[in-house]
Specification:
The chain is an alpha/beta fold. The protein has 13 helices and 27 strands. It has a 7-stranded mixed β-sheet with strand order 12-25-26-27-23-24-13, covered by helices on one side. A 7-stranded mixed β-sheet has the order 21-18-19-20-14-17-22, with no helix packed on it. Strands 4-5-6-7 form a 4-stranded antiparallel β-sheet.
């Protein structure tokens, strides 16, 4: 049990609340990322565990950066993760009410219109060790403030000419309590309200009041909002509205990536990645396209837990979670990524066999089986043959024997080279009595390699993805975070060969390429141009290589 669950249980058991109500309040100014997934799993998971419900509320108070595209993508991501909200709401639903709340504060002499510039307001704020100074407009009368605020609303003033500030305490040790701005002018079309408004509430004014309107019992935020809680409570108290309560937990910081939506947008706009759903991005849509499953992301969020201290979570844990899930759910198939031709010289050239391959021995139902065509000409991995074998080499070499997965034991008899000395073909013989499942040969071999029949294979493009950055914390390094981009974060293999079984794989279908890793069908894949993305390797090769 984490500390938030303890608070909720105490509140419910004491009768403080009859129903637990949480909310997930993203700003629709970008795509959701893995950090948001943690907040989604927490908010929705709590109401699944304790009853009650969760609202989805879009914090759409900045018309300049917000788009309906982002609203749609965020809804899709939440549903994909396996959650459903009770009410779909928008802060813009409350613009009229929030305006009236601001008028209430003016009437209580707790807000005033300030004509100071942004620079002047910043100068008057003081510092953490020095008190602020009162604005020259702080003592305006209620009547004057009501008039000016109404004229702000009617569009009389240009952007930046004036703001509405809460009148609190310019000597407060909490800088946010030094007469914070609660309304600013923005002449911009809003994605829902159009041009009805030219003044918009600031986050700190809109957030707590929106929570209160929805009678949110536990408003769960990340730790950067700890200092905002005092203002959250002050506004609710002065407006005498439902007392929602704010609680904070440590945000998710993931190694080898950045989580700032501003920086992620920069990567998109500058063409560093192909889009928000690029499989190298930490966005939920990027992880989905890469082949991650909602189950693996939920398990990851469960494993990292809820804490009160910031730390960096290793990307390898997320990769471990998806490996664990795909090991149980992904069918095993054969794909050759760096092909070299192998000919079985004593197998009739005109003969074909249909062999049987087990789909997933780790699945509860064993995953069933599939048919695999076999012929005398195969593609195998170039790395599975060594002309001069190293010690303890158990794969193919001159005179060596290996088993072909699901097929026969073969022995390398010879090979050919081109003019540059590159091996072009390998020639083998086979042991007819060694067929998998029917082996009576009595021969034991230590190595097994995978293959595809060259006559039946389908060609595919394979996109090999790796970490987007070369350092654990790009934000913590000197200089521009883009200086640490991994130049090898994406490798494209254009001439791989796969089993014909994969030719009709559905979009987002996930597989284990035997001995290679986990792969999924990319959304751009077509019947004429098959594309697979590598989700993750079979083992954490990165950690070993970077010790």
């Amino acid at each position: 049990m984490n500390f938030i669950e303890e608070i909720i249980e105490n509140d419910l058991n004491s009768g403080k609340y009859e129903t637990l109500i949480t909310r997930f309040p993203p700003e629709p100014n970008g795509y959701l990322h893995i950090g948001h997934a943690k907040a989604i799993c927490l908010n929705f998971g709590l109401t699944q565990k304790y009853g009650g419900y969760t609202n989805l509320r879009f914090d759409d108070t900045n018309p300049v950066t917000e788009k309906t595209e982002y609203v749609d993508s965020q809804q899709n991501d939440i549903r994909w993760l396996g959650f459903q909200w009770k009410n779909e709401l928008y802060t813009s639903d409350y613009f009229d009410t929030l305006y009236e709340y601001a008028v209430t504060l003016i009437n209580k002499e707790l807000a005033y219109v300030d004509h100071s510039t942004a620079e002047e307001i910043a100068d008057l704020k003081g510092t953490p060790t020095e008190p602020g100074k009162n604005s020259p407009y702080r003592n305006r009368s209620v009547a004057e403030n009501l008039d000016l605020f109404s004229r702000m609303k009617s569009g009389e003033f240009a952007d930046g000419v004036c703001t509405l500030r809460a009148l609190i305490d310019m000597n407060s040790p909490n800088m946010l309590m030094r007469d914070p701005i609660i309304y600013r002018i923005k002449h911009a079309e809003h994605h829902r309200t159009g041009n009805k408004w030219c003044i918009y509430p600031m986050y700190d004014f809109a957030h707590g009041q929106s929570d209160s309107i929805e009678t949110i019992t536990h408003s769960i935020c990340t730790l950067e909002y700890v200092s905002h809680r005092e203002l959250y409570d002050w506004l609710i108290e002065k407006l005498e509205i439902f007392p929602s309560k704010q609680y904070e937990f440590a945000r998710l910081n993931l190694s080898y990536t950045v989580m700032s939506k501003r920086k992620l947008l920069q990567l998109v706009n500058e063409g560093v990645v192909s889009g928000w759903d690029d499989p190298r991005m930490p966005t939920i849509s990027g992880l989905r396209r890469r082949g991650y499953t909602p189950e693996s992301i939920r398990e990851f969020c469960e494993r990292i837990g809820i804490a009160k201290r910031e730390n960096i979570i290793e990307l390898s844990l997320l990769e471990f979670c998806v490996r664990e899930h795909l090991n149980k759910t992904a069918n095993r198939v054969m794909a050759v990524l760096d092909p070299i031709k192998l000919v079985i010289t004593d197998y009739p050239e005109d003969k074909e066999e249909i062999l049987t391959g087990e789909n997933n021995p780790e699945a509860e139902d064993k995953g069933g089986s599939r048919e695999i065509p076999f012929s005398n000409a195969l593609w195998i991995e170039r790395e599975d043959f060594m002309e001069e074998p190293a010690k303890k080499w158990f794969r193919l070499a001159p005179g060596a024997m290996v088993r072909l997965k699901h097929a026969y034991i073969i022995k390398c008899e010879s090979f050919s080279k081109d003019a540059d000395g590159n091996i072009t073909e390998i020639y083998c013989t086979h042991v007819p009595e060694s067929k998998s499942g029917e082996d009576t040969s009595g021969i034991n071999v230590k190595g097994t390699i995978h293959w595809v029949s060259s006559r039946h294979a389908k060609q595919a493009e394979i996109r090999m993805y790796d970490r987007l950055f070369t350092v654990e914390s790009p934000d913590g390094e000197e200089g521009d975070f883009k200086d640490y981009l991994n130049p090898n974060s994406m490798e494209v293999i254009t001439h791989a060969y796969i089993e014909p079984y994969l030719a009709h794989a559905g979009k987002d279908a996930r597989y284990q390429f035997i001995r290679k890793g986990y792969y999924c069908v990319d959304q751009d894949s077509t019947a004429d141009h098959l594309i697979f993305n590598r989700t993750v390797s079979l083992k954490d090769a990165w950690a070993k290589a970077n010790k």
